[in-house]
Design goal:
Oxidized Rhodanese, domain 1, alpha/beta, four-stranded parallel β-sheet, 4 helices
């Protein structure tokens, strides 16, 4: 699902999880407050604890990896997944959402 089909700020305000799929080093240099860092190569591992009924907004450096992450999650039954694109486009928002401990 493309991010222009929803209002990302509204979705975040309602408790969406912001999933930053950049590397740990990239994430450490700056990220959306409250976002979760799950590098793209760890997406499959995260499916053991990510909830399918909570909206997920993926982000990365440019939007390419977040698009891939969104497609991977959708292929495994996640229906409320949106590509937020570059993380710094979301930096004035704050992530939230319910997520069980890893």
């Amino acid at each position: 699902m493309e991010n222009n089909e929803i209002n990302l700020d509204e979705t975040i305000a309602k408790g969406a999880i912001i999933l930053d799929v950049r590397t740990e080093k990239e994430y450490a240099k700056g990220h959306v407050k409250g976002s979760l860092n799950v590098p793209l190569d760890k997406i499959y591992d995260s499916m053991s604890w990510l909830l399918k009924d909570v909206p997920i907004i993926t982000c990365c450096a440019s939007g390419d990896r977040s698009q891939t992450a969104m497609e991977m999650l959708e292929a495994h039954g996640y229906e409320k997944v949106y590509n937020g694109g570059a993380w710094n486009n979301l930096k004035n928002t704050k992530g939230g959402g319910a997520c069980p401990a890893k």
